[in-house]
Amino acid sequence: MKINVPIKLLLAITIILNSCVTSNKKNNSIEGIWKSIGYGKILKIDANSYEYYDITTISCLPAKEGKISDVKNSMQISNDTLTITRGFSKYRYVRLSKFPDLCQQSTKDKNDISYNFEVFANTYKNHYAYFELNKIDWDNLYKNSKDKIDSKTTEVELYIIMQDMLKSLKDNHGSIEPTDEIYELAENQIQTELDAQETEELKEYGDFEIAGIVADYYLKEDLTKDTWLMQWGKMENNVGYIQIKAMFLYADLNLNDSFVKENGFVSTYMDAFDNLNYEQQIAEEVAGISKLMDSIMQDLKETKHIIVDVRFNGGGQDVVALEILRRFNADRKQIAVKKAKHNNGYTKKTPIYLELAKNPYTKPVYLLTSQQSASATDMMALSSMELNNLKRIGSNTNGAISDALQKTLPNGWYFSLSNEIYTDNNDKFYENIGVPVHYELNYPNERQTFFRSVANDLEKDKKYILNAINELQSE
Questions:
Q1: What is the dihedral of CA 165, 171, 176, 177, to 10 degrees?
Q2: How many CB atoms lie within 10 A of CB 118?
Q3: Among the listed residues 394, 235, 250, 419, the one whose alpha carbon sits nearest the alpha carbon of residue 321
Q4: Is 165 left (phi over 0), alpha (psi -120 to 50) or beta?
Q5: For residue 188, what pLDDT is reported?
Q6: Which of 72, 54, 73 is nearest to 64 (CA)?
Q7: In this prediction, what percent of the chain has a pLDDT beyond 90?
Q8: Any one Gene Ontology biological process term (predicted)?
Q9: CATH number 1.25.40 is the correct assignment for the domain at 16-103
Q10: CA 163 and chain centroid, separation
């Protein structure tokens, strides 16, 4: 039977359908205003550029900007949710109908001491993931810290107040970076107080320094080339040894030699690194470490087993740690899960995978860890729990596993905090606790005490490790 539809109804249906098509086109565009789920960010995207803002309940501050063409490939949109992928991390944003009023031009004094304190405190209150774990009474800590601030409080005093809060919070990735002038004034004040106390002067070692001392002693055949960040070669009895000093600084950034000579490698590197967008930073770091690992694995492929030493490695980029670890992995596998604090709960869980190597080293691998193995090195140890051919020797890692959520205060100071929870595949987390070892060597927790204990008897240090390997092999 034929149904006669009134012309007005047909027109109405046509308008509705056209409206839906227009709406879908709009919703499928990445252009617009977006709010992050769990990370306190606003993202503004137009046809040519993007702008990030750090947002709290009392502030909205510009954080980063760039060309959309540089980051567009990392973005996907589905059902009005924007997902940005960086390495193995996925950050989700929901669309807003308009730019928040808070993000319009603010009339507040960006250097006001109380305002900066409140932005700092508000960020921690909303995003710090470990109040319960670290048994923190936030309301009391906030009140006591706020009571120290009045109209006469200086920037140096504000910095010291914030530093004291970070100590109380026991945040492994908590940090505050003021201007160089404020930092120096504060350090001089703190040092003056320390000088008033009688302290015994003992030799102090840097992380890279002690790592180099150990590697030089262990290696009978040093095969290191084209880097100072790693050392590798062979010990006695055809045992491979890899000393990894850091999990970053591997990108080839064509640094100016005169700048390196004047300012040092790390400072020059970071200046160049900060000029890259997030996606470029990850890609360049992975490319750099991948090239090195190709050379290392070729040099050590005939060894009977390999020792990987990260006892003095304070971390860097998780993607670097996984790029190293995957050289010992024959099958792609899930190795961890992450989520971030969001309101009174958490964001959607993101599974993390370890990719396989084309020609993996599947003979025994022994990962040396200590309390100084932190951040991305924690991540390496956590991921290693899924590798059957790998055993850990030494002591628990540091337990600084959450990523550092980077933020900026109104006065321009940078700060960071731990807002994420990483777990193994059994939903167990190791923040603060550290990833355990298969063979415990009871290293001192205190950094310099541990470094000196190793440096003062390198032969004993090596002997303990080789004995541990022998016992693990006999099990």
A1: 150
A2: 19
A3: 250
A4: alpha
A5: 83
A6: 54
A7: 81
A8: proteolysis
A9: no
A10: 20
Sign of CA dihedral 180, 184, 186, 190: positive
C-alpha distances out from residue 52 to 4, 42, 89, 116, 176, Å: 54, 6, 18, 19, 20
**Band (143; pLDDT cuts 50, 70, 90):** very high
Please give the Cα distance from 415 to 162 (Å, whole number): 10
Q: Which residues contact 92 (CB under 8 A, 6 or more apart)?
A: 36, 37, 38, 81, 82, 83, 84, 347, 348
Output the pLDDT for position 104: 82
d(CA 44, CA 470): 58
Copy the structure tokens of residue 333. 């596998």
Number of Cβ within 10 Å of residue 128's Cβ equals: 20
Cα–Cα separations (whole angstroms), residue 362 to 231, 289, 306: 21, 20, 10
Find the distance separating the first CA and the last CA of the chain, reported in whole Å. Answer: 83
pTM (2 d.p.): 0.85
pLDDT in the model for residue 3: 43
Order the strands of the 41-45 sheet from edge to edge.
60-67, 49-55, 41-45, 32-36, 89-96, 81-86, 75-78
The rounded distance, in Å, linking the Cα atoms of 424 and 454 is 31
Instruction: Give the span between the Cα atoms of 92 and 83, in whole angstroms.
Output: 4
Q: Residue 134's pLDDT is what?
A: 93
pLDDT of residue 87: 84
* Helices 318-325 + 278-300 axis angle, to 10: 30
CA 309 to each of CA 2, 124, 230, 402, 463: distance values in angstroms, whole numbers, following the listed order: 80, 34, 10, 22, 14
Q: What are phi and psi of 391, to 5 degrees?
A: -125, 145
Task: Classify domain 207-399+434-474 by CATH number.
Answer: 3.90.226.10
- Residue 465 tokens read as 């490790």
Give residue limits of the domains in the chain: 16-103, 113-195, 207-399+434-474
pLDDT at 7: 46
